[in-house]
Structures are given as structure tokens and as C-alpha cells.
Amino acid sequence: MKSRFGPAGAAVLAALILIPSVEAQEPSTAAAEDIEALRREIQELRAQVQALQEQVVSLAGSGGAAAAPAAAGAPGAPRPAETPPPVPSPVGTAPPARSQGLLNPAISAVFQTIGNASLSHENDASGFDLSEAEVAFQSVVDPYARVDLFLSFPAGETPEVEEGFVTTLALPASLQLKAGRFKSAFGKWNTLHTHAFFSVERPNALVNFFGEESLTSDGLSLSWLIPNPWGLYLDSITEVGTELEGVSFNGSRRNLTYLEHLSGFFNTSQNSTFEVGLTASRGRTGPSASLLAATSGLVLIPHDELDSAVQGIDLTYKWKPLQLNVYRSFLWQTEVLRSRRHIDTLTPSLTLTPDTLSSLGGYSYVEWQLVKRWRIGARYDLSGLPYDERARESAGSGVVRFQPSEFQELRLQFKRTRRNEEAALVLDADRDDNQIFFEWIPVIGAHGAHKY
Length: 452
Description:
Elements: H1 7-60, H2 67-72, E1 106-118, E2 127-142, E3 145-154, E4 160-168, E5 175-183, H3 204-210, E6 216-226, E7 233-243, E8 257-267, E9 272-285, H4 289-294, E10 306-319, E11 329-346, E12 352-369, E13 374-385, E14 388-405, E15 408-419, H5 421-427, E16 432-445
Antiparallel strand pairs: 1-2, 1-16, 2-3, 3-4, 4-5, 5-6, 6-7, 7-8, 8-9, 9-10, 10-11, 11-12, 12-13, 13-14, 14-15, 15-16
């Protein structure tokens, strides 16, 4: 039987059969291409995550302990949802081990090259020298304590431990305990290392009351951030220890010295702060050098254990605008000290009678930051002597500071000093003196930041 369709009908029939087949194949091919593209993107993302995790591991220096997270992100690793949750450690177990990056302490070195010349008189101390080199080692011990060690190498003197103490990091109730050798928390300037001064040398009152070095103690220091309903920063520091040999506390039996420092920190505006501090210290002292010289040929023995106390108040105002904080700033800092000590007095009849001697001293310093690297300052000193109430000296200083970076500073200071006759005699110094100081301080290593 002959077909009812001719050649044209056969072609149409074939087309009708093939079209559904093609339409069914096109969606399947497109879906396969989309799936393949997603697979490639996932592989690329996994590779990127793995690379980032390897960088974190290398920076943290955590070795094999941190390699597990990196392996978890590698291709073929189970998805995060399939990873079992960590099992909590039982109470009382030891803290996790320190990473390798913390096994080595932060090490730094500070050098101080000082030039000093008297413009009025010849002075044996004039000239240039490496005044002091300081090497610091600082590191955490574990999550509960850290250690700070500062070794000082004064020019022409025996190296010594300037500071070396351990500080707790996890005491409750906003408490922090420090033990070892540290600069006593008397006021503001006393706590600074010499390279952190605003001027080349320390104020006269601190030298007359505490000696050429800072008031430094071997003992314990407990600080407490006092809670209060006003949201203010109120701090209390209580210290007990044995002071190193000085002017106000120099008992021959290594007596204990007690110190209490209270400070409050206030935000006076968005760009300025004001801080006030009160300090009281009490200890023992011995006879003065002049009394020992006066009684050297007599059958008189002065007391070597006499009460001595020094109180102080410090005020600090700082202005630093938020938008220009690296280019403009202003600082005003003032401290006033009062010494009260028991002494033995040699009478004209060559007998020793007890007496009480009081003296005052202090300084005021202002500093302007003109541009990013330049600062100018001025300081006025007025001081008595804690062992001679008749002695007085005053001084005025001008300071220029240039800081190319946070790791280098150059200072230039001019100082004019005036003393009365008693002070010149006791201090074995000139009545009037004009001095010029130059100092260059480079810092290398990871030297820690100082307090605000």
C-alpha cells in the first residue's frame, strides 16, 4: 500500500520528531555547565581560605597546634557543619601553651648622648658622653603575669638593674600587684625613665628631695581602679618596700618605706584632659653629711634612724585636638613637694638636740607642639633642701625638642640657675650659673609605650 505522505510530508514528520529531542537536550547541557562553574568557584574559594589560614598560622607562630584549622579548609576536608564541636576543658586544667611568637621577649635598647657646658664658669662635667644606655626585656609569662626588666649602663659606672618587676594580669576586683624593683609612684616625673623626660635633666626639686636618680623601691606595689558612680578614672597605688639610697630615705638599717598615691583623671572636653594626684610617703633617714662632719671629732653619735616624710601634689592638663592630634598639642604639668623630717641639731654648747625641719620644692612645665615633629617648652624650678631650711635655689629653662619619628629625638635646653649663699655652700656650686644641654636619643627594638 502506498504511503499517504510525499517527500514534503516526510520532512515535516521528521522535524516534528527531532524538535522535542533537541529541546530536551539544551536545558540539560546548560545545567551541567552551571554546575561545573560553581564547582570551580568553590575550589577557588577553598584554595583562598587555605592560603589565608596558612598566613595566620605563620604570623601567629603557633606551629602544629594551629595547623589543624588550616587543614580543615583544604580541598577534600569535611565541611564545617560536619566537624564535631570542641570538648570543653575540665575546670582547673592548665591554660593553653604559649605560642612560639611569645617565647622570645620583646627586646629594645635606648641610647642617650648628652653634651653639657656651663656658659658662666668652668665645669669639670662639661663635654659629651654616652650618658646612659638602657636595654629592656619585656614579655608575658602566661595569661596571669608579665615581666619587665630594664638594665641600665651609665657612663663610667657599674651596670645595674634600673627596674625589674613582675606584674599580675588577672586579679579580680580591678586589682594589680607588682613585685620587684620599680620607680615609686610619687607624682608624675619620678616614674619616668630619663629618655622619656620632657627636658634633658630632671627638675631641681626632685634632685634635692630624692637624689640624682628617681625614688626607687625594692618591694610590692598594689594598684586598684576604684569603682565609682560617676564613671571617672580613679586610681589608688599602695607601695611598701626598701628605698634605694637617697636623700629623704636613707636609713642605715634598710627600713621599710610606705607610699600611697591617689589620682583622678577627667575629660574636660572632647580634646582635653585634666589629671590630679596626691602622694604621701613615709620612712626613715639618717644624719646629714654636714652634721657628721661637724661631730667627727666629738664624742657625739647622731641618731641614724629618724622619721622622714614627703608629700606631694601633681596637676597635669593636656590638650590634643582630635582632627590634628599629630600636629598640635599643649601640655601643662606642675608638682609641689613638701618634706618634713626629724633631725639632730648641734647646739653651740656641743650637744645634740632633736628638731623638725620642713622644706618645700616644685616645678611647673609647659610645652607646645608647633608642628608634627617640633615642640618647645619652658620650665620653672623653685626648691629648698630637706636637710637645710635656709637653702634656696631657683632656675628657669627653655627646651626645644625635635622628633623625626617615634624612635628618635633630639633635645636642646638652656638653663639659668640662681642659689642663695647657703645653697651654694651646701651643694658646693656657684651662686649663678648658665648651662646649655644637648641630647640625642635613638631607640631600637620593640620599646613599649609610656603611660599617657
